[in-house]
Amino acid sequence: MNARRGPKGSQCSARADRAVQLEVLVEEESAKRALKPLLSALFDGRRVKISVRTFCGKPDLLKKLPERLAGYAASRRRGEDIRVVVLVDRDNDTCTELKTRMDEIARSAGLVPRGDDSGTGRFQVVNRIAVRELESWYFGDWPAVRKAFPKMGAEPPKKYRGNPDAAQGKCSDAFEKALSASGVRMASKPQWAERVGAHLSLTENASPSFHAFVRGVGDLVGE
Q1: pTM for this prediction
Q2: What tens digit of pLDDT does each residue of 67-96 get?
């Protein structure tokens, strides 16, 4: 594991006598494979049980989210310490509108989203958006990509050298093209995720949405 640990949140502290159940809901298998080593590094040595749940794409996740969150709310009322992270790609959606929709689903289910917190730390859901796609986070941590694929060049494609979240177009297509140009014939997103995810740094990434995700998860679970 080459991922480096980042700062822990200071709110919503886990009880010492039992593990927090962290439920992470993602669109697809590739996100699961990328996030599992990252989250394991973030909570290394801590009493956090992590489950990453996949769906059949973003529309499927959003469709099933109300029922899923209602189930978690019911479990919390029974005394289970469940906390939830939802991660979707921005794609061509507007970030504010997508985030507003996800927060409202959480409220309707009887849970408090991070955006409603007034400094008390009493929230149970963190909704986060990968801008524009998960592959933006790979471009943001090029050393991780080069560890996963040593044939890749010293720098990412030009438009991804600054803030990868600001680049236009499908970054997944751009990532596949960069692989192909380096002689790597691999079109499987889950395989990319498994190889790159093992090396992603918790602290060194040029993607603001990546850091928003790490901070949000840290705040959710706390110290």
Answers
A1: 0.89
A2: 999 999 999 999 999 999 999 999 999 999
The answer to whether 148 and 196 are in contact (CB under 8 A) is yes
Spatial separation of the C-alpha atoms in residues 83 and 113, rounded to whole Å: 10
pLDDT grade, residue 117 (50/70/90)? confident
Give the Cα separation of 107 and 169 in Å (integer). Answer: 33
CA distance 70 to 77: 11
Q: Assign 3-class secondary structure to 114-152.
A: HHHCCCCCCCCEEEEEECCCHHHHHHHCHHHHHHHCCCC
CA 79 to chain CA mean position, Å: 26
Nearest to 88 by CA among 30, 49, 4, 40: 30
**Domain boundaries in the chain?**
20-133+204-221, 135-197
Overall average pLDDT of the 4-25 stretch = 62
Q: What does the block give as tokens for 192?
A: 């990319």
Bridge partners (DSSP) of residue 88 are 129
Q: Please provide the CATH number assigned to the domain covering 20-133+204-221.
A: 3.40.50
Q: What is the mean pLDDT of the chain?
A: 91
For 140-190, the DSSP string reads: HTHHHHHHH-TTS-SS--GGGSS-GGG--S-HHHHHHHHHHHTT-----HH
Structure tokens of 64?
């099933």
> Are the C-beta atoms of 101 and 91 separated by less than 8 Å?
no
pLDDT of residue 9: 43
Amino acid 223: pLDDT: 52
| Residue whose C-alpha is closest to residue 124's, from 111, 137, 142 | 111
